[in-house]
Amino acid sequence: MSELVSEAGAFIPKDRIVSVGEKSFDLSEVPFEYSLRFYEMMPIFEKMQGGTFISSDDYNQMFPVIYDLFHFIDESVEEKWLRKKITIKTFTPIMMSIFLAVFDDGKKNGEADGAAVP
Asked: Of 39, 54, 62, 73, which one has the fewest beta carbons inside 10 Å?
């Protein structure tokens, strides 16, 4: 009988960096806790992708999750600093980058490495 061996990091995309102000945040491994919180915001993300207007309530719901994730990655990040550094123009690209990091199925990384992707 053959054994199935899986390396946990085999399909983790490399070089998923988001820059805000003078800081960079590596999103190549988003912890499960934050992935779940972003998953709960999927309806808002779908509105953003479709070009539909999102409300200030939507922004206010998403910002704390961005802050918590960035603060987890870099404990020196303060909420006030992040609120000043993110603009309306940069908010959507930041969210899209995070969602892609969280929900990417690894195909690009797997194909680049020549690995079989289920």
From this structure: 39
Q: Cα(59)–Cα(82) distance, rounded to whole angstroms?
A: 14
SS3 101: helix
| Angle, alpha carbons 103-40-72 (nearest 5°) | 70
CA distance 67 to 52: 24
For 100, phi and psi rounded to 5 degrees?
-65, -40
Torsion of CA 31, 32, 33, 37, to 10 degrees: 110
